[in-house]
Automatic annotation (TrEMBL):
<dbReference type="GO" id="GO:0016791">
    <property type="term" value="F:phosphatase activity"/>
</dbReference>
<feature type="transmembrane region" description="Helical">
    <location>
        <begin position="30"/>
        <end position="50"/>
    </location>
</feature>
<protein>
    <submittedName>
        <fullName>Stage II sporulation E family protein</fullName>
    </submittedName>
</protein>
<keyword id="KW-1133">Transmembrane helix</keyword>
<feature type="transmembrane region" description="Helical">
    <location>
        <begin position="57"/>
        <end position="73"/>
    </location>
</feature>
<dbReference type="InterPro" id="IPR052016">
    <property type="entry name" value="Bact_Sigma-Reg"/>
</dbReference>
<dbReference type="Pfam" id="PF13492">
    <property type="entry name" value="GAF_3"/>
</dbReference>
<keyword id="KW-0472">Membrane</keyword>
<dbReference type="InterPro" id="IPR029016">
    <property type="entry name" value="GAF-like_dom_sf"/>
</dbReference>
<feature type="transmembrane region" description="Helical">
    <location>
        <begin position="7"/>
        <end position="24"/>
    </location>
</feature>
<dbReference type="InterPro" id="IPR036457">
    <property type="entry name" value="PPM-type-like_dom_sf"/>
</dbReference>
<dbReference type="InterPro" id="IPR001932">
    <property type="entry name" value="PPM-type_phosphatase-like_dom"/>
</dbReference>
<dbReference type="Pfam" id="PF13185">
    <property type="entry name" value="GAF_2"/>
</dbReference>
<feature type="domain" description="PPM-type phosphatase">
    <location>
        <begin position="766"/>
        <end position="994"/>
    </location>
</feature>
<dbReference type="InterPro" id="IPR003018">
    <property type="entry name" value="GAF"/>
</dbReference>
<dbReference type="Pfam" id="PF07228">
    <property type="entry name" value="SpoIIE"/>
</dbReference>
<keyword id="KW-0378">Hydrolase</keyword>
Amino acid sequence: MSREQMLTWYGLVVGVVAWMWLFTLPATPVAPILVILFAAMAFAVDLLAFRTPPADVHSLAPLVLITASLTLGPVNAAWLAAIEGVVSGVVILLLTNRPRTSFSLFGRPLLRSGLRTLGILASAWPVGALSNQPLTDQNLTPLFLSTLFGFPLVTQTGRMLRELLQGGRSGLATWWRSAWPAILGAEIAPLPLAWLGAAIARQLELIHLTLAGLALVASAAILRRSSLNLQRQRRSVRELARLNEVSRAIIRSELDVEALCELIYREASRIVDTSSFHLGLFHGNHYTLMVRIQDRVRLPRLTVDLSENSGLIGWIRETGRAILVEDFVREMDRLPARPRYQSERPPRSGIYVPLIAGETVIGSISVQSYEPGAFDANDLRLISLIADQAAVAIARARAFHEARQRANQLQAIREVSQQITAILNLDQLLPSVVRLIRERFGYHPVHIFTLSPDDERIYFRASTADGADLERIRALSLRIGQGLVGEAAQRGEPVLVSDVINDRRAIRDTWQTRSELAVPLRVGSTVIGVLDVQSDEPDDFDEDDLFVIRTLADQIAIAIESANAYTAQQEEAWTLNALLQIAENVGRATTLPDLLATVVRLPPLLLGCPRCYIALWDRERNDFVLRAAYGLSRQARATLIDEPARSPFLLRLRERTIESEQINIETLWQAQDNADQWPALIPAAHSGALIGLPIKVRTTLPGVLVLDYNDPFIALSSRQQSLCIGAAAQIASALESLLLAAEAAEAARLEQELRVAREIQRTLLPTRLPVAPGWQIDAAWQSARLVGGDFYDFWPLSSGDGQYHELGFVIADVSDKGIPAAMFMTMARSLVRAAALDGSAPARAMERANRWLYRDSESGMFVTLFYARLNLETGHLCFTCAGHNPPLVYRAATGHIEELHTPGIALGVIAEATLAEASTTLAPGDVLVCYTDGVTETVNEALVPFDLSGLRAVIKTYHTAPAGAIVQAILAAITRHSHGQPPFDDITLIVIKRE
């Protein structure tokens, strides 16, 4: 049974008992005018009753009823109390807007009637019992004294039982603390005046009683007014104190929105019942409930969309006005907007107050109740005052948070920008960009696409995705205007989609993308790419994300432009330098074999093709004959060199070149699918694509230079095409000159080589090999001619304490042969030694030597080398490889042979070469073998090279022998392989073995 039902039953029981007792007692005849006068006085003072918190009502009705008991008799006074109690209870309920409940309609009037009736009868009963007289003939003095004490005892006891049923012990204690002063002062203290009233009624005229009644009513009115004024003053004081506390709490609070919302909830709870309380903030079209209390239970934060059917909250946001709803049922049709919620138990009353900062409504406070009339205008006023102060604090906290967030974002953007602007290699820049964006800002996945000025395609460049997602993105084919990325590229403006499921432009795929932001990378008015970020949550990107991504996109565009400009400048310089080197290298060739060998080795170095061939036109055979090749296997060399090509591809190129005045590049894509264009070569070389460069001399075509790539869809850039055309022209000029002056040049070259050879040989190589405890060091050098381009050298290095604990050594191969190579070798040796003697790290020392070579050399030659520093105590080997054959290390512990690789290009090609550096440790028994390509490219009569496999076999066989024996074993194996054939290239060896 609920408390409401228990109170109702309590009132009914008390009323029925009182009325039943009253019906058992006989009434005495009295003057009707007196009954009417006393009834009017009782009703008037009840109407003028005043309320004390929490909810009790006090009046002078007990004084009137006791006076009536002394004047009319207890039974008549009881009838008067019973009837007036019911009537006044109902009338007062109808005159006020209190909730109509079963207790207020039935229980409370019957309880008031019953308690007053019982108070009169119960206080008069002891007097009648003691005097053995009927209640209608009581002695006046005993009756007055009995009623003076009995009536308050009965009525206040009934009140206490009511409060105990309604609020329990705590409710009773609260009621007593607040009500006893009013009970004592307004109801009990005036009771002795009943003796005076009875005397006036019994002994004076009716007019005197009427005047006394009017005075009593006036006193009740004055008492009511004084009580109301006192309540207002106390309430004002409490309100000011509370508002002052709220203001101080808000001022002392941190600039944190969540903490402020909790503070507002706590302070509002001190003013009104916040068992159902909502505090929400607006974010665009969304409304987020920061504090959400329902039936005193805290619920999780909720965000709703106000774009459609915004309800009362939307009306408050639009008008900035507060609203008090006393009863939704009665006022629903008069409300400016209907509530948006749908619930089986909707609220009956509520307060809705906007949070206004300046001219902007930033949120709202909602306090609701299931009872009608639970709030009044004063509650609305207090909540509004709190809301005004809270709105300013929340706006300030928001501004502080936004400023701090924006500062953090700008700081992160600045740091990212500093890192990406330092990268000038585009292939390194873009992966670094997406990685930094994910690390610093948490976006994932992040993609970067670039646009090609030559077509409408959009090219994928980098992503934070991996695995299958990365492969899917790489396989994606996009064009401008296609998908969200294509839309951003076409419009040149950001494209933000909150939910891609509802956007037709989005390309649906396996990635669970729900929201996406694509921002164009712009340089001026030109779009060069698109930065795309995605999320698997809808509505995951807002204006802050747009600001961050847009700012990053601007920085990325600048970085890309800088990288492109740097690359273009480097490529242009590289192209010019490469053409110069090609011209100088091919121009120095004095024999046809030298020229052809030089020609086929230059494109792999400069253009990156793994294989290169040159075919000359043979008039006798009326076909092209392959004269030189680089990158072919031994078997392919044996079957293709000096054999007719029988290639429709070459014949077609010859016809087009002879007919045209320009040099045209011919490309054969997907060579494996078009093997009939060169049946002998394409299957044997596993060619992907062939690029033919005609070597045109005037109106004839003496030869064709063919570049062989693994990529079947290789496309040369404009820079590479210019380099190819220039190289073809240089080769044609050199070939023509060589054919015209072959005999004279041969005699002059031989004479010059003999004259200079002796001087070079004396200064080129170390006179003595280093001797170090625990180490065996040996070397060998054999020139293919009287002089060569290979060299090696050793020098001790100080560790800083004056002791020489490290040994520096180098092995190198100049790009040319003969006397020019020997001269260039002399200079290269000196510069390399000078660059390394200060003890610099290998990569740094060789980069310095490269700058000197590039600056001091006008020959256009370059040199490949391997330079290392060996710690003679620990065996630690730090090295760099500048385009040279990787040395071999035999590991005694495992029996395996390793290659020492580092990326890097030959020295002297460009001014600023970047070399890598690596290190390893030589353990006891390990053998390091450094060599030049003359070792592995020595061929026999069948043109089968000695190759790397032959060198590995010798090392494995003789790894237990001393270093000198290993050197001799390698040379002997090369001699046996060549069967007395003259060496094709210089042979140089360094063998270092740790004992």
